[in-house]
Amino acid sequence: MFLANPFRLRETGLLGMNERNTFIARYNERRLYPLVDDKLKTKMLAEKHGLAVAKLYDVVREQHQVEVIGKTLEQLDSFVIKPSRGSGGKGIKVIVGRRGDNWVKASGDEVTRLDITRHISNILSGLYSLGGKPDVAMIEALVAMDPQFEGLSYEGIPDIRIIVFCGYPVMSMMRLATHVSDGKANLHQGAVGVGLDLGAGKALFAVQYNRPCKLHPDTGLPLNTLAIPHWHQLMCLAASCYEITGLGYLGADIVIDQQRGPLIMELNARPGLSIQIANNIGLSPRIRRIARESKQVSRSVEERVAYSMREFCSEPSRVTAV
Asked: 125, 212, 253, 312: least surrounded by Cβ within 10 Å?
């Protein structure tokens, strides 16, 4: 089996779980975790500080509200249901249209009103939440995918994960939905991860299930054509999350809406390490560099972004196999 080369990653500063946990413990105060572990709190916090987020249609907090919201949703052709305290993309249901009395998922499968209300009930019971605790269901507007990503993300909206350390973007990837990921941009469920040049937002390397790939598995389009619009704006949006949360080590997940541009979808106080596989380079040297830099110089959001775009700029964009 041909995997992304672990020896090369080790040589280039692979950040392991223990080292990552050390940075998290040092730079993320536990009292701040609820701000990002709860997607509803994150959305309210971002809106309070003027950062763009997807429109929130409604929130279901109690079981007696389920039938009422079911009737409300019948007036919508598209929407997204997600658990407020879910993780790993679990419990997210994306509805893209209507077919008669039923709704249609990105895969083309139909779901009934009963399917929807059962799903919401499961969210409230804590089926998808961290620790299985009772949760609330968020009903959001469906993001309209930028036409630039047509054929590069299949049956779902792609998102951009940016790791931010002490307010500096240090690594990024775009997660492209596939048929096996059920239209969700989650690497563990089969989405494609494309490492991005921090200087220009262009593709560097791509993997699916940690295996290098050059073509999208469903559409066959070459992944080295990927270039992210609004890149500077997107980087500033991610860097701003340091100020609003107080978290020194975080992952910012951002989508690009065709009309509204970059939107914050969620934040993570314990972002995974697979972003290194997608970039074919380790995080440790960059984080250690910023740890020194942030102690010596105080910079604004714009200045931190300019530093990262300059210092972590990669070679001319290309997708390769190691």
From this structure: 125
